[in-house]
Write a structure and sequence with these properties.
There is one protein chain. The chain is an all-alpha fold. The chain has one domain. The protein has helices spanning 7-35, 40-59, 63-75, 79-107, 109-112.
């Protein structure tokens, strides 16, 4: 995430980036499944389940920023950076979970099982 922007901006961006990656990836993947002759709603549900971790990684800006923040927090005693990074990860997890829930509501795939 951008270090110059305020923390709340990064917090909100993290949520919506994860939400967008999950919903967008699942819907575009469902379109691809439809064009390939496969059931699109089933494909959307499966993709949403598989994209949760990638939405999280995309939202926090890759793994190196997170590792660097944890390293700085542990080695330099700057616990504020660790706390901020944990909050960003929780925000991204919330966005990914919200996206998965929206996809689940749209597809209603869990009802057909």
């Amino acid at each position: 995430m951008d270090q110059e922007a305020g923390f709340m901006v990064n917090f909100i961006n993290s949520y919506f980036i994860a939400l967008g990656v999950l919903i967008g990836g699942a819907l575009i993947g469902g379109l691809g499944a439809y064009l390939a002759g496969e059931p699109p709603l089933t494909a959307i549900t499966k993709l949403a389940n598989r994209l949760k971790i990638w939405a999280l990684v995309a939202a926090i800006g890759g793994t190196f920023d997170a590792v660097y923040s944890f390293e700085r927090g542990i080695l330099e005693g700057n616990t504020r950076d660790i706390f901020k990074q944990l909050l960003l990860i929780i925000s991204a997890m919330g966005g990914a979970q919200s996206g998965w829930l929206i996809i689940s509501w749209l597809t209603q795939e869990h009802l057909s099982s």
